[in-house]
Amino acid sequence: MIVRPSFLWQQQTDGDLKIKDWIRYDDDTPHATMLGIPFARASISASGASEFPNAFRRTWDSFTPYYVDEMIDFSPYRLCDIGDVLLHATDVTKSHAMMEEAMMYVIERYDKSLYTTIGGDHSITAPLVRALKRAHPTKTIGIIQLDTHFDLRDFSQGRTNGTPIRQLVEEDIVKGRHVVNIGPHGFYNAKSLIEAAQHYGVHIIPLKQMRSLGIKQTVAHAFSLLDVDLIYVTVDIDVLDIAYAPGVPAATPGGMRSNELFSLLFEIGQRDITAIDFVCIDPLRDVANMTVKAAAYAYFTFIAAQQKRDME
Amino acid sequence: MIVRPSFLWQQQTDGDLKIKDWIRYDDDTPHATMLGIPFARASISASGASEFPNAFRRTWDSFTPYYVDEMIDFSPYRLCDIGDVLLHATDVTKSHAMMEEAMMYVIERYDKSLYTTIGGDHSITAPLVRALKRAHPTKTIGIIQLDTHFDLRDFSQGRTNGTPIRQLVEEDIVKGRHVVNIGPHGFYNAKSLIEAAQHYGVHIIPLKQMRSLGIKQTVAHAFSLLDVDLIYVTVDIDVLDIAYAPGVPAATPGGMRSNELFSLLFEIGQRDITAIDFVCIDPLRDVANMTVKAAAYAYFTFIAAQQKRDME
Amino acid sequence: MIVRPSFLWQQQTDGDLKIKDWIRYDDDTPHATMLGIPFARASISASGASEFPNAFRRTWDSFTPYYVDEMIDFSPYRLCDIGDVLLHATDVTKSHAMMEEAMMYVIERYDKSLYTTIGGDHSITAPLVRALKRAHPTKTIGIIQLDTHFDLRDFSQGRTNGTPIRQLVEEDIVKGRHVVNIGPHGFYNAKSLIEAAQHYGVHIIPLKQMRSLGIKQTVAHAFSLLDVDLIYVTVDIDVLDIAYAPGVPAATPGGMRSNELFSLLFEIGQRDITAIDFVCIDPLRDVANMTVKAAAYAYFTFIAAQQKRDME
Amino acid sequence: MIVRPSFLWQQQTDGDLKIKDWIRYDDDTPHATMLGIPFARASISASGASEFPNAFRRTWDSFTPYYVDEMIDFSPYRLCDIGDVLLHATDVTKSHAMMEEAMMYVIERYDKSLYTTIGGDHSITAPLVRALKRAHPTKTIGIIQLDTHFDLRDFSQGRTNGTPIRQLVEEDIVKGRHVVNIGPHGFYNAKSLIEAAQHYGVHIIPLKQMRSLGIKQTVAHAFSLLDVDLIYVTVDIDVLDIAYAPGVPAATPGGMRSNELFSLLFEIGQRDITAIDFVCIDPLRDVANMTVKAAAYAYFTFIAAQQKRDME
Amino acid sequence: MIVRPSFLWQQQTDGDLKIKDWIRYDDDTPHATMLGIPFARASISASGASEFPNAFRRTWDSFTPYYVDEMIDFSPYRLCDIGDVLLHATDVTKSHAMMEEAMMYVIERYDKSLYTTIGGDHSITAPLVRALKRAHPTKTIGIIQLDTHFDLRDFSQGRTNGTPIRQLVEEDIVKGRHVVNIGPHGFYNAKSLIEAAQHYGVHIIPLKQMRSLGIKQTVAHAFSLLDVDLIYVTVDIDVLDIAYAPGVPAATPGGMRSNELFSLLFEIGQRDITAIDFVCIDPLRDVANMTVKAAAYAYFTFIAAQQKRDME
Amino acid sequence: MIVRPSFLWQQQTDGDLKIKDWIRYDDDTPHATMLGIPFARASISASGASEFPNAFRRTWDSFTPYYVDEMIDFSPYRLCDIGDVLLHATDVTKSHAMMEEAMMYVIERYDKSLYTTIGGDHSITAPLVRALKRAHPTKTIGIIQLDTHFDLRDFSQGRTNGTPIRQLVEEDIVKGRHVVNIGPHGFYNAKSLIEAAQHYGVHIIPLKQMRSLGIKQTVAHAFSLLDVDLIYVTVDIDVLDIAYAPGVPAATPGGMRSNELFSLLFEIGQRDITAIDFVCIDPLRDVANMTVKAAAYAYFTFIAAQQKRDME
């Protein structure tokens, strides 16, 4: 970068420390890594979720590393954006393998960090958890899933975004009873999938039940079900109501309000979590960028919670 | 239909039983009929509500007959789409008569079924209830109305969508005290209409009161007021907040959240209901199709509740 | 106006008394004045808030002076639209001075009225309160601020919409401890601004705290902190969640639901308030006009509360 | 209007003479009258064309009475907005009669003026021309129609917006051979309507033919076909391509570019014209207000041409 | 289908013969077949082109089989919708094979017909032409391509929508010199692709050149270059300007106006054509449905031209 | 930048040389500099033109340095993005001074280059040309302006975007007769501004005149009027028709088609030009990003023309 006179600069600023100033690109021992997976080719419905990693990064000039609701300054937290995974344009199987290898590399390279991943469609969760198991073959893994759907479809149409949980359970990487899905609602899971959930022993906490339990109690209950070594959290933004998140491939009414999702993640984030992903945000059909911003808000709520936990 | 080789088909599917697969078109003894009324010519404000019956049908490839929140499989429920009413393009009075005759036919032809109607603007409720009274002249009819507005305007501008309740009360088809309107809020009913409500004895439960009572209690209270033989439910989707339902002709802030509407309908749907209509959804000014989807969600929540009641 | 035959008119109507019929333009002793400030040039981010005063006026054909939730008829209330302030197209300092002089004139001319102002960006609050202080130099002034942001930035970039509270506190027009900000949330105030709030003694009630206290208790608590003679309320509509208010320059997730804002204003409006402003609504980026309508709804909720207080 | 200090005003201005400043409301001998007909109830497809008269008026703060392309100052031209016709909310026949009476009044009251009408859907043309014939029973009337459609449907569905030309021809108010329709294109007129055009002798100049003739020659040709006393021009904005005019009820590709429409109207406007209407603009489904603005541009191009003709 | 009384029907109609009434589903010897390929998984950029076959079908209620510009009644033409190809949700190679087999079946089953295909992304052209070659191994095939892009990318990312022409040339199914691409413009083909076009001998007629030649001459020139037995036409709707076709995955300014595309297809359609496809229309990001409608208009212009040719 | 394994990268690519790969950031002797001015505070109407420099940069991943229409490879051309000018958030006068100083620096630092500037609103042209005059005090400067407006307003409202040409002429930096404005049309310049143009001797070539002359002849004519040493080109994107450029603060119908603008710039760009700016693009109100893309297309057309000129 050449030196320029003070009246020339690259980017206007209002003087605050913004996420874009705070994010790291070359930290060897970050508290957390952020890996992008610009991949939407395994989505059953048409999806632009491949655009989300960069859309997420573009929100960083409007967020600061300070969480007002809980007065948490997470600027000491070191978050390192390690870039996007290289993928294949048409070969889904190969792309899934490339993600798995990338995740293996990240786990080995940054072995003390939290692994956060920015999807992408929900099919990415399977290779990511598979890599986690390969890296920790003797550890048991539990999954907290926040989702409108069960993602327990069979593989007749390949490893679509409707299959990741079934993949992991059928491959015995995760036990069915070590999966807790919070948030399903409405008319978006066929009876055959309900039966699959029962067959595999996956725990389903419908949204209505979550609301009657309360969010803290729901999280406590979910963790009580997970007698495991490592916990992986997967957040499908389509768990949100379409009024809050129109920018997902299969947006539905009757979903969570965004503040409920934020509260869930603030509770979950104060626990020991090994990895987390955020999937199925489609910036191309968003309205007023609200879904992209809600996903970013959810992400930083989780990070703030991790910071709080580290402080205590 | 000619036979085609297996690699040619009419419609992609993900293998689930969807509403489009489950709906019936030629059942003589269905649990419920579904009649479309593509009519918006009596709407005071410009309205594309005539587009809703088909917009509703197009949602059927994304809904399944299984309600996750309450784990209700309503696939045994038999719902028969009997088509749309033929209407006149410019003669409102004639169109209203055509609806009334169609409803008479439906009541006689499917005499054991629940009658569901998909509007259309709110003016359709008057001919539909009039037909119900003609078919059951000795029965008393009560109305549960979910609406931002009272619909008690006078007839100086004809039988607009602002008049159906007044029509029915003035014609003594329904007693004013047998109408309970849940959900009015804000600044959308002039004082003269408040006075009309008082004059006719119509029960108004403003949204704020509904929230302080609770939804179950509100429904119980509403039914306690209705000492009648038959109950007709009319759902004006403009009762929803504009953030959840921008696609109505007169969308307002300060309305119900969609989950409140769904809860109301789940409570109401577990009771003996003779007929229900859904009106004033304008797909032409919807955002992200969210209003159309919310109305469909409301409809199937009611059906799921009916199924639950049948099971018990 | 020339006389015309009865079949020619200027505006279609449905016969109800609407705000447009009820508003006054030439009342010398109104209960409240309404002053427009079509000014957005001090906004840090690009803003069309200068379009709001007229956008607000255009909502008046769909609102009536009757508040159904509380059954309050505020048609006896006399609200006088006294027009917009003349401003300079490029000189921000001069425009701020013009606003201050206009407010001085209004306070003197209508000395018994409530002063309501329709912005405009948030920078207008400083000259408005400055005028109030000039008119009442011996009175102490307290501020209730409903806002996502603290507006405590320094003046290195001039008197932007990020600075009004700091201007007033630094000029000793208002004590820091006489400012209560309800609603901040999320990641939109840098740590340096938190520190500024602490330095000046400004009270911050984050949204999460407001929700755990309850709205009535929050308002009671806020007023208990304000041992002052005059209370000025400033409502930055960006306090609302982006799902309810996409039409603000810096819309965020995680904000208030509009019904919470309405409840706050109904509580606040039942107290003695000297002046109120509504700022930062950008009609140019609104979706389905929902933000403009929500701001209008908020405004009339406050007026209804004032009417209720006058009646008691 | 009360007198106010100079720093208070009702409307920001940039100092130019705008249409809103130039328009007259009470001129007894204007060059032209402007009558609004906020009516869309006879539209076959859902239409918000009733919103256009006011949407048209709202463009007046961005247009000036000076036409740069031809350097025509039409500020001396006196255009008088005489308001909107009072209509019935549900009775189409009655509303059409009300329009006819209003037009009769206008013709008598302003007997030397050009009569311009702002619709509304295309059904309004029939009562307007009917009134013209009643006022001038011995005069022959010719119609220049700019339209994608023929509007020659039969009356089985009443006097819809698809019927006005057929009404006038069947009632012998206008001879079929005295109608010239410029602009039909594509796939939007069924063969039966082509046959009707042939039957009645209506002249059809498809868009492709207009383009190969050239605009001046097309207009000259059209006028050569009209051996009549009075000429009525009707402009259905749906003659424009959907890229230029998405805000019409049945927008189509393959239509005119807006500059072609403007050139047509500039040619036509330099001739003796008795009356003109602009119909089928739906502001509710417009994109970026472009259709409303194009219709306003077309209107003022015609006025500029009239001024040019008056000057010569 | 059960018999219903005349006042009940499935679909409102205005009485005209519409495409939806005219289209055939079970004709054994149609003039043309229509095959849908709801496939977008090989698109380099995110694409909802898989939604187009059904979006195309939904336009059929607003088009008639009569082309006004040329007064062509193509209702005698027999067009048979033979449905969509069954595809695999994640395996691109398998899906391409499924398309090829479907096309083989269609060619054999309907051996005298014109084959029209509705995509889908542009990758579908390769398997379709491959099938044509398999069915006619001794015939030479020429391609008229209307496209902004060359589609000559290499296969390092698989058989993407950027590769179909290269696939066909490299497999010697079509000679490079038997490909004429009309319409490339702007900055959307890298120099390496220009070099590839030169290497393979593909003829490029940039849009600017087409405009200086004229459309008839361009088409005559293109056909003069194609000394082949069978001609395949492929229409990538992204050849249109973004103002006319915002609903494509990579919309660009500087493209064709839609009337130019229609004229091209009217010229081409009067020649002997074996097959045609329309690709890369993404209904999910369309504005006012204008791209979908433009593609349908293009399709029927071609059909009208075929009818004209049959008549002569 | 740390070294990463090959499967991790920062940005997906399709392998082509894109503008983002070709652009330079630290070239000392570029053919052209690109300076961003994210400034919209002097715009009379609300404007987000401050967002354009970065919106322009974001288009660089979809454009290549090869212009197909004219087969020009401009990859040898060296274009250096030197960043954005630092501005003041509220002081317009100061910001204009900062731009002028930045331009002085650029002219001195890169004294052999073409100076391109990306606005911002049109007020930026005055300080830019002022700097050019300061750097070359003995040279005469001519301006080619492509604009719907004259920008000859007086300074009663300060140095708004309606004033730059008047500023330069009144300060005698540019003679009125050395300004040629191509493209004004319609009703957007008041008579007083026409008179100002005549007073200063500014040449106005309305769009209609440009079309009758032809683009090459118009450009030749414009240059024949400019007997000057240096030529500055200013492109106000609002010269385009609203169908092509909805994303400008005052979009109008009746403007240029984008291909006309591109042709103008291709002609102009083959001449000796000292500097060029592109102003008044508002990405916040764009539709489908089409205005941003059109402005980028215009920019690169000009660069391609410069390359062609350098080659010859």
From TrEMBL, chains A, B, C, D, E, F:
Ligand binding (Mn(2+)): H122, D147, H149, D151, D236, D238
Names of the cofactor(s): Mn(2+)
Keyword Signal part of the UniProt annotation: no
Cofactor descriptive note: Binds 2 manganese ions per subunit.
GO biological process, one term: L-histidine metabolic process
SUPFAM superfamilies: Arginase/deacetylase
Domain of life: Bacteria
InterPro entries assigned: Ureohydrolase, Ureohydrolase_dom_sf
One of the record's GO molecular function terms: agmatinase activity
Key words of the record: Histidine metabolism, Hydrolase, Manganese, Metal-binding
Family affiliation: Belongs to the arginase family.
Name of the protein: Formimidoylglutamase
